[in-house]
Structure formats: structure tokens, C-alpha cells
Design a protein that fits this description.
alpha/beta; disordered N terminus; 38% helix; 7 helices
């Protein structure tokens, strides 16, 4: 297949709002736990990178209060509009090409943002540059190559179909230039950017209704691309969506790796 540029899961598609809700349900608890551990509190100045939806920016706004500041950025801010009120400031920003939207931030957070960036090391240096001395950074990205299966327990035709479609999804990502071994390199990149106290962990649900919701909306969003690329038929996709809805599949996601550190 030929390479195609652009995001596979486009914010402008009709399923985008449902996709953001599924991401939030699945990953927000882990993100919020890490942000709490980093000490976020009243008056903090935060940069939410590649925000996409409103859930994290709105949570940060409650934590920093009226004396704090949350700059939420993305290349497409259409889904961020509901959160654009003090202390949240919404800006269009391309992490791959532009300088940070300010400096002396207490916290910089990015989830599923670096995976879309051409030069991740440069992007991380830009994020670190925006921190004040002693500021914290939390970056989170999935690693589809680390765990490529949708159904780890592949014991029947339904699970085999699910894993075949997941393989097709990974092919589509690769054809758009997405570097699938992403999450595992985050601790090293943070150290190379000069951060200290670098730690990381991973969230890896093995069976969850939230995984089923995410899978359903993802497959519906990429359905046409899968069929056009010859990776699945409409009948395959209809059968898989019915299997997901039945609740009989133990579905997982790629591990979401969270890495954090502090600027000296």
C-alpha cells in the first residue's frame, strides 16, 4: 500500500466526539492519578499538548483554580471550544513545527500527541524548554508494537477476526508514517532531554467494557480505509462489530505508557 499522510482518526469525522469520550473513559483515571502524584495544585501554570477533547483540560482547570492557567493546544481545536474559558486558554499549535505557546510552565502534559510527531526528540525538547526550573512533565503514548493483539486469548474464530482487523489498523497507521514502537522510548527521551527523576509505568487492561467502546468507535471510524486497502470486507467488519457488542470478547488495548520527570 502507498503511504497516506494525515491522521487516521480525524477529529472532523462524525465519530470523533464518541472517540474522545471512549479515550477519556479508558485513560483519564490513569492520567489523573499521575498528575495528582506530580503535585498539581492551585495557581499552577499548565500546558496541555495535543489536547484533542476537553476532559483533561477541564480537570486541570479545576485543580489550578482561578489563580492558575491552562493552555490547551492542538492543530485542530474544534473539540476544545467548550473548555475555552478562564483559566483555560485554547490555542491552535503544531508541536511538530512551532515554538511553545509560552514558558515557565509548572506542568506540561501530552497524551497520544508525540506519536503523530515527526521528530519526537525535538518536540520533547520544545516541551522541556517551556518548563520553569523544577517544573514537571508527563508524556503518555501507546505502544501498539509492544502488544499487537486485540484479543490476547485467541481461542476461536471471533478472536482471530478481531486480531486480523487490529493488524489491519496497525498497517493503516504505519502507512501514515506512525512509528508504532512509541511508548517504550519515552523514558529514554526524557533523560536525553535533560530531565531528572524519570520514571515510567504502563496501563494495560486485559478485559474492559471501555475497551469494547473504544474498539467499536475506532473500527467504525476506519471502516472505509480498511475496505479500500483490501484489509477487510464489509462483512468482516459487520461480524466483528456484532461480536464486540455481544460482550463475548475479552478486548484489550495497546499498553499506554506514562513517563514523567522534572526539569533541573
Amino acid at each position: 500500500m502507498t503511504r497516506t499522510d494525515g491522521y487516521l482518526l480525524d477529529n472532523r469525522q462524525t465519530e470523533a466526539a464518541e472517540l474522545f469520550s471512549a479515550f477519556a473513559a479508558l485513560f483519564d483515571p490513569t492520567t489523573f492519578r499521575h498528575l495528582e502524584a506530580l503535585g498539581i495544585g492551585s495557581g499552577w501554570r499548565c500546558w496541555e499538548v495535543g489536547a484533542g477533547g476537553t476532559s483533561v483540560a477541564s480537570w486541570l482547570a479545576k485543580k489550578v483554580g482561578p489563580t492558575g492557567r491552562v493552555v490547551a493546544t492542538d492543530t485542530d481545536t474544534s473539540r476544545l471550544a467548550p473548555s475555552a474559558r478562564p483559566p483555560v486558554e485554547v490555542r491552535v499549535h503544531d508541536l511538530d513545527a512551532q515554538e511553545p505557546p509560552g514558558e515557565s510552565f509548572d506542568l506540561v502534559h501530552a497524551r497520544l500527541a508525540l506519536v503523530h510527531v515527526t521528530d519526537r526528540a525535538r518536540a520533547l525538547r520544545s516541551m522541556v524548554k517551556a518548563l520553569r526550573p523544577g517544573g514537571r512533565i508527563l508524556v503518555e503514548d501507546a505502544d501498539p508494537a509492544l502488544q499487537p493483539l486485540l484479543c490476547p486469548d485467541e481461542h476461536g474464530p471471533e478472536q482471530q477476526l478481531a486480531n486480523r482487523l487490529r493488524h489491519g489498523f496497525r498497517r493503516l497507521l504505519a502507512d501514515r508514517g506512525t512509528d508504532l514502537p512509541c511508548g517504550r522510548i519515552l523514558p529514554r527521551l526524557l533523560r536525553e532531554a535533560g530531565l531528572t527523576r524519570v520514571h515510567a509505568d504502563a496501563y494495560f487492561p486485559v478485559a474492559s467494557p471501555d475497551c469494547a467502546a473504544l474498539e467499536s468507535v475506532t473500527i467504525r471510524q476506519i471502516r472505509d480505509q480498511l475496505v479500500t486497502a483490501g484489509l477487510a470486507t464489509d462483512q468482516d467488519i459487520d461480524r466483528h462489530l456484532a461480536n464486540v457488542t455481544s460482550g463475548a470478547l475479552d478486548l484489550t488495548t495497546a499498553p499506554m505508557i506514562s513517563a514523567w520527570g522534572r526539569k533541573q
